[in-house]
Specification:
The complex is a heterodimer. Chain A has 14 helices and no strands. Chain A is mainly α. Chain B is mainly alpha-helical. Chain B has a two-stranded antiparallel ribbon. Classes of the chains: A mainly alpha, B mainly alpha.
């Protein structure tokens, strides 16, 4: 590729810096605002650790992060345990009508929760699952399953049939083949599903808001949103809480960036 | 197994029986392995769709439902809130070109591989990881009367101009649209960058040797190559517009002022949980289902077309 002229490169670099400033703006706002007290925030100047030292008394961040972690990890575990065998089945152990069933499951990917929100809410409430985390976990798991089935199926299609058949001939059985042959190959796909679902579930509001009734069991995103919508909590404390809530998802993103990209461009980048 | 059977008796039959049972065993395992996923999707997505259809014809408060019939639908379509929400969604569609053009520009910028482009890439995608609740909170501060937007306007010398976009019915939706564009930048840039990476550099090189200018190369080579990625980004952006704005609206405006920023998905929440009218909310859900269904069919065709 021909190198653009020097001034051209500086203009490009300048444009990239401008975009970077815009994209970093939310983080700058969160950090700067969290380092002010309420009165300093209103008057504009000053610096204080007050909102950080007060944080746990205003927002139960510890409990909320714990809730988020429980809900996230349980949902992802179900999504993987359900999606991986199904993907194996739809790609290698095809049964009568399996293609139709696969297509139906994949099209469920297009159903937004809001479209079925009312019946879903009433069903889960009637089953008495909104008291703890279970209701939210099951809703998240079922919403994430279609995508994971789609991803695992397309992934396993690339695995040669002979490998599985060799395992069966060796007497592994289908469950053994799944556990000993398929699972080790599937690690990149597992990582993709995990990273995407982690960010999705950790950042979600609607399910946590409606399907977890006890305020003491709220995930952090829900806790923040409710306080923000209430308009009574001080902004610096909300921003401090936002930083806490953003950190895990950011770390996961920075650590597993390539899996995220792979998942988002799934189906088109092959 | 076949070797243990005396070959003198039924030499051809034994292997055939074995193959049949093997096939059946494989199918049976397939059904067994797929069953948990099927059950989960049927119970939590399939059945509720059916219920939504039923309840859309009833008066329903979540506990008891009474059958009303198709008149619920005619009633709903006479409700101005529904039309306001649909109009708001329609107006927000105007932000989609920006949500595509800006990431396209950024992706092309990154693709020039200027020094440090990897770091810039990570920075550009960073907001994608954080919740739209948090981004909505920040946006609320940006547009607020004492927020960043007014500081910028004042710094530019227009000290007598002050905005409060989220406070006015005519402007709140614009502010929401701008925030939406910002939240989509990371994902769409990621998509376009992946598309650019699959572009054969020798094509551009050949065009350059033939004397084509930068703009010409972009229009005649880069853009056509990206068309599938642009289509996919378009569909994903529209789906997000109809089903992912809840967090932003909840934090930024609560659907207001009035119903100025109430979109379909927020109207469903509002009707169901604030007004307690579960039947109408279920009906609105079906309308949303149909809209996203149409967009979804387009997406499936896009994804499926290269298999």
């Amino acid at each position: 590729m021909k190198k653009p002229r020097r001034t051209g490169r500086w203009i490009l670099f300048g444009a990239m810096v401008v975009v970077a400033i815009v994209m970093l703006y939310p983080f700058w706002v969160m950090i700067i605002t969290s380092l002010k007290s309420e009165s300093q925030f209103l008057s504009g100047g000053g610096f204080s650790w007050l909102s950080w030292s007060n944080l746990t008394s205003v927002i139960p961040v510890g409990q909320e992060v714990l809730s988020s972690t429980i809900v996230c990890s349980s949902s992802i575990l179900i999504i993987l345990c359900v999606g991986l065998p199904a993907g194996f089945a739809f790609s290698k152990l095809r049964f009568r009508m399996s293609t139709v069933v696969f297509l139906v499951i994949v099209s469920a990917m297009m159903v937004p929760l809001q479209a079925i929100l009312m019946p879903e809410f009433v069903n889960v409430t009637r089953l008495h699952l909104t008291g703890g985390y279970l209701g939210a976990i099951l809703v998240y798991a079922s919403l994430g399953t279609p995508f994971s089935v789609f991803l695992f199926t397309t992934y396993f299609r690339g695995v040669p049939d002979e490998l599985i058949e060799a395992g069966i001939v060796d007497g592994l059985g289908y469950f053994g083949a799944l556990w000993r042959l398929v699972l080790p190959i599937a690690v990149p796909a597992i990582a993709t599903v995990t990273v995407l679902q982690f960010i999705q579930i950790w950042d979600d509001l609607l399910v946590g808001l409606l399907f977890i009734q006890n305020t003491s069991e709220r995930p952090i995103t829900v806790g923040l949103a409710v306080l923000a919508a209430g308009r009574t909590t001080s902004i610096p404390e909300l921003m401090a809480g936002s930083i806490i809530s953003a950190l895990p998802a950011m770390l996961v993103y920075l650590g597993f960036q390539r899996y995220l990209v792979k998942g988002l461009t799934m189906g088109i980048d092959r | 197994m076949s070797t243990t059977i005396p070959t003198t008796e039924r030499p051809t039959f034994a292997p055939r029986v074995r193959r049949l049972t093997l096939k059946r065993r494989r199918q049976l395992s397939g059904v067994l392995f797929a069953l948990p996923a099927i059950a989960l999707v049927v119970c939590f997505i399939g059945i509720p769709i059916g219920q939504a259809v039923y309840y859309s014809f009833t008066q329903w408060n979540g506990l008891t439902s009474t059958w009303i019939g198709p008149s619920t639908w005619t009633q709903a379509f006479h409700n101005t809130n529904l039309w306001t929400a649909l109009r708001n969604n329609g107006l927000l569609l105007l932000s989609v070109p920006f949500a595509l053009a800006l990431p396209l520009g950024i992706a092309v910028l990154l693709h020039q591989r200027v020094a440090g482009w990897r770091i810039f890439r990570s920075i550009y995608f960073l907001p994608t990881a954080i919740s739209w609740v948090v981004l909505g909170l920040v946006a609320e501060r940006f547009f607020a009367y004492q927020g960043t937007l007014n500081s910028i306007i004042h710094a530019l010398g227009f000290s007598h101009v002050s905005t409060n976009m989220l406070g006015y019915e005519s402007e709140a939706l614009i502010a929401l649209g701008i925030t939406f564009v910002f939240t989509m930048i990371g994902t769409n840039t990621m998509l376009f960058l992946t598309g650019l990476a699959t572009l054969d550099p020798s094509l551009e090189e050949a065009a350059r040797i033939d004397g084509a200018g930068r703009w010409r190369i972009f229009r005649s080579i880069t853009l056509p190559h990206l068309s599938r990625f642009i289509q996919l980004a378009f569909v994903m952006t529209v789906i997000a517009l109809f089903s992912a704005l809840f967090s932003l609206i909840f934090v930024m405006t609560g659907g207001g002022p009035g119903y100025a920023t109430t979109t379909m998905e927020y109207l469903i929440y509002e009707t169901g949980f604030n007004q307690g009218d579960f039947g109408t909310a279920a009906l609105y859900g079906l309308i949303l289902f149909v809209i996203t269904g149409i967009v979804g069919v387009v997406q499936l065709r896009l994804i499926g077309s290269n298999e």
